[in-house]
Amino acid sequence: YTGKSGKQLLAEKVMKLTVKQYQSIPVVVKESSSVYDAICTMFLEDVGTLFVVDESSSLVGILSRKDLLRASLGKQVLETVPVNIIMTRMPNLTICYKDDLIIDVAKKLIEKQIDALPVVKSSDGTSYEVVGRITKTNITKALVDLANDE
Ligand code: ADP
């Protein structure tokens, strides 16, 4: 018998859950894509958040459902407005890495009041390659795994 309380054991399990175990495939669009194409991609790929990349595949922005809804309320022609006009852009993006803890991602989602984070990799420390996506749904899956003691 370890003498550890149920609370301690649960805390230990929580501290073992990492992004790489729960991340999903990222869905990206180019910054030159139109708002119209981004809306189509969001429906076709069945995601709530799109990551925007530049010509060299580096992360430059994020598009949420409401970003696209807001853009659709305007009088602009959606086929001609590029997403880089309406996206949330670097350096205001909240990101994470595959070895980060799920609990730290959960804290960031709550603190920033957002639904998803891009999982990134950086070879030079200035540009970020998108390698995954972690959302509230992935965090919910982690919670269920904890309850099932996996
Ligand atoms: P929605 O806007 O559909 O409710 P979110 O709550 O995820 O979805 O997004 C709220 C705002 O925060 C949007 O303007 C979006 O561009 C921005 N946003 C979403 N994810 C991030 C992130 N990881 N880092 C910075 N901003 C983000």
UniProtKB/TrEMBL annotation:
GO terms for molecular function: DNA-binding transcription factor activity. It comes from the Bacteria. Residues 22-80, 87-150 form the CBS domain. Keywords: CBS domain, Repeat, Transcription, Transcription regulation. This is Transcriptional repressor CcpN. The lineage of its organism: Bacteria, Bacillati, Bacillota, Bacilli, Bacillales. The chain holds residues 65 to 214 of 214 of the full protein.
